[in-house]
């Protein structure tokens, strides 16, 4: 890892961060984990790909349906293959570089923030170049983008391309520093002319230099080509490709219960379903896009159609289809989960163009929750609370028939240090004091802490202790952060590529404000029948206690009205979230803290039967 002038780097980071990524009290940060990759790392490879020697021409546009690079072409698994991190992508699928390893967690989590490291690599399998020579005019080209929907690489970060020579050493042949400017994909053209590369063990490798903490240094790479008989002007792709995922069938929600949808389908259905394409070639293209829709459970077709569109050279276009039979479909049980599959495809328009990017699929899910997010996160969102001031976030939803709110599914963004000791409350509100409204709390669940589940969606379900029965109408789910520094920087995963109305409000202190940041928070109210067993219920803290003296120098004492179980233990966590001590409570409830370094700590009592809220104390 690379050492830096810490003070100057810190000042510059804070200046860039505050100027680029804050809107009043709303803040965004890069993710410290990737749940898609994390889940994939725990699975066996279902279709192990045997590495083979590569030949010319070589082409890769990352259309494989796997978050890992295809191992028949690449030797490592550190970049993230996806279709959500890139802005204005060239064709479906990009490779994203960040500061997360192949298990989806931060590299070197023991290093401090603002430390710059060599992070992700993307290394090709071996090419036999011994039959070629410089006169064959071989070029490697690729498209690159800094940031995209992720976090921009900072000016001291970089993306670098290396070639492996016959001496076994890697040589830098191209490099680019980070940039906070909003730019689309750019193409790089790299000639291969050095005779040291014309051997039977040639490889190329990209590496990103990333800063841990505030910047996770996202870069996207797409559409890699290497072939002979090229020149520096050979930049035209000659390919028609689907790009971003098709739009959802719904015009606002990304998911909702089917029985609510059926109350007035015309109110929820988008006027059309849309797929996005790009003509990457020099011809004016007039072609046909075919659309199929079906119910996944039964296989029943909902309809199919063709539409003719024209896209001019080097331009984008959309295939717009009518939504067939979604409104008239009836599942066996109105409470069932319903999944519609939308499939778009078109015929190749250029000779020898890629066929993998000529098809794209989107699933429309109806289930027991309301959602604005698409299930993937690109950033994390938090409120910048004032010292000793509370904060709250509220997201607007609506019921369209009487129903029962059973809980809330939330994907919290993991943090370094851990935020598992940050308390918050969940409230169901009929109205908030914004634009003439008044705060009307229907139900509130207290003493909750962030929790995580290692699944692709990574939502943790907070099952309400009491069901909340409500009539149709608007309601809000509010995440309330109490004052006192025990819930600051509570980070929630943000689906950054969901643009448009975010239905989000926040307050830091007194007044509600409308959110100014795009993207959907990954917060989903759960409705209907009782939630499945096996999901942990939040429990009301049933040990009310005080710590004294506070501040304390040698001993802490516990004062409580109720008896504490003789099985109870206590935990002390330091200010950066690491557990300092865990031990059984003695009968005197007296804690020796003489060896604790001076500082701020958090204390709680817990066992199988009882647990407490968190109390903060100062050791002097």
UniProtKB/TrEMBL annotation:
| Superkingdom of origin | Bacteria
Q: Which residues form the signal peptide?
A: 1-24
Supply the alphabetized keyword list: Signal
Pfam families named among the record's database cross-references: Por_Secre_tail
Segments forming domain Secretion system C-terminal sorting: 547-616
Q: Does the keyword Signal apply?
A: yes
Q: What is this protein called?
A: T9SS type A sorting domain-containing protein
| Organismal lineage | Bacteria, Pseudomonadati, Bacteroidota, Chitinophagia, Chitinophagales
């Amino acid at each position: 890892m690379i050492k830096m002038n810490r003070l100057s780097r810190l000042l510059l980071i804070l200046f860039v961060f505050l100027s680029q990524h804050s809107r009043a009290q709303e803040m965004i940060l890069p993710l410290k984990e990737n749940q898609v990759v994390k889940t994939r790392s725990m699975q066996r490879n279902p279709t192990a790909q045997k590495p083979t020697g590569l030949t010319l021409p070589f082409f890769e546009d990352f259309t494989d349906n796997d978050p890992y690079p295809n191992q028949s072409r690449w030797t490592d698994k550190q970049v993230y293959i996806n279709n959500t991190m890139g802005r204005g992508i060239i064709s479906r699928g990009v490779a994203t570089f960040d500061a997360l390893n192949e298990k989806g967690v931060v590299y070197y989590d023991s290093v401090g923030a603002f430390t710059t490291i060599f992070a992700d690599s993307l290394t090709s399998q071996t090419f036999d170049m011994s039959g070629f020579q410089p006169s064959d005019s071989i070029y490697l080209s690729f498209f690159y983008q800094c940031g995209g929907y992720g976090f921009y690489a900072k000016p001291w970060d970089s993306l670098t391309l290396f070639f492996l020579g016959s001496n076994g050493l890697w040589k830098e042949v191209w490099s680019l520093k980070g940039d906070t400017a909003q730019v689309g994909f750019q193409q790089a053209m790299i000639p291969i002319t050095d005779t040291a590369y014309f051997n039977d063990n040639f490889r190329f490798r990209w590496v990103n230099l990333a800063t841990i903490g505030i910047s996770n240094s996202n870069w996207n790479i797409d559409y890699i080509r290497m072939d002979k008989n090229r020149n520096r002007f050979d930049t035209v792709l000659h390919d028609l490709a689907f790009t971003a995922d098709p739009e959802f069938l719904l015009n606002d929600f990304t998911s909702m219960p089917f029985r609510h949808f059926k109350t007035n389908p015309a109110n929820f259905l988008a006027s059309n379903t849309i797929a996005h394409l790009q003509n990457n070639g020099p011809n004016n293209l007039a072609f046909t896009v075919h659309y199929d829709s079906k119910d996944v459970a039964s296989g029943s077709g909902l309809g199919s159609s063709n539409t003719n569109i024209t896209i001019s050279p080097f331009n984008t276009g959309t295939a717009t289809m009518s939504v067939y039979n979604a409104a008239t479909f009836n599942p066996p049980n109105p409470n069932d989960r319903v999944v519609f599959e939308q499939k778009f495809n078109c015929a190749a328009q250029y000779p020898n163009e890629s066929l993998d990017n000529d098809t794209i699929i989107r699933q429309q899910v109806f289930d027991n929750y309301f959602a604005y997010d698409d299930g993937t996160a690109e950033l994390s969102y938090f409120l910048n609370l004032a010292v000793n001031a509370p904060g709250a976030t509220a997201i607007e939803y609506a019921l369209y028939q009487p129903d029962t709110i059973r809980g809330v599914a939330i994907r919290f963004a993991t943090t370094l240090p851990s935020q598992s000791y940050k308390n918050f409350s969940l409230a169901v509100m009929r109205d908030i004091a914004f634009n003439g409204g008044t705060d009307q709390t229907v139900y509130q669940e207290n003493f909750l802490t962030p929790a995580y589940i290692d699944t692709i969606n990574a939502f943790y379900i907070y099952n309400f202790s009491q069901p909340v029965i409500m009539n149709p109408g608007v309601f809000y789910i509010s995440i309330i952060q109490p004052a006192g520094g025990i819930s600051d920087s509570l980070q929630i995963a943000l689906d950054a590529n969901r643009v448009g109305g975010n239905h989000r409000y926040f307050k830091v202190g007194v007044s509600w404000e409308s959110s100014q940041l795009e993207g959907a928070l990954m917060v989903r109210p759960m409705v209907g029948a009782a939630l499945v067993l096996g999901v942990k219920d939040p429990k009301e803290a049933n040990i009310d206690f005080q710590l004294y003296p506070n501040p304390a120098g040698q001993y802490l004492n516990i004062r409580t009205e109720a008896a504490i179980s003789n099985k109870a233990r206590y935990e002390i966590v330091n200010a950066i979230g690491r557990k300092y001590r865990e031990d059984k409570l003695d009968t005197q409830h007296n804690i020796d803290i003489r060896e604790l370094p001076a500082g701020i700590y958090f204390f709680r009592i817990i066992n199988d039967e009882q647990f407490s809220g968190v109390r903060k104390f100062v050791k002097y």
